[in-house]
Specification:
3 helices, alpha+beta, 8-stranded antiparallel sheet
Length: 158
Amino acid sequence: MLRLKKPRQEPDVSEIHEDARHLALEAAGLVPSPVVDVMRRGIVLETGERAWREVGVELRHRVEGEWCAAMPATGLVTDRRVLLRTSAGNCISLWWGTLVRFEPALSRGYVIFDYGDGVPRLLSGGQVPVVAVAGVMALYGVAGLTEHPALERLRAGS
């Protein structure tokens, strides 16, 4: 008898928002972080780099004023970057420390990474709130988690 796997269910919005809020507490050192097994994914992190979450996102980049088609990717969110593995098998690191602009737009479901190279990157998808929290923490510290306007929806609990 052939047994079929149950299709993987995507977490609902309230679960994702709750996870993003919990990540904020973890990043601030108020609660312990779960262990993310990066070796299972064949990834070696930088010395001292902490893995926070695995997320499913879609990656786009802007060329000549137009956003390209979305490319599904799996991301590893760390305290230093978002490491993406695209559906084509490419690995891309989006480092927090070299950004010139970071635009989390949770109400629209995306985050923009701009490195000043003329090719902004856009991550979208249901798990973007986790990316936004990690980026705000990396760029603005704990104060950003409580003050950054992009995280208001998460602080409000909606």
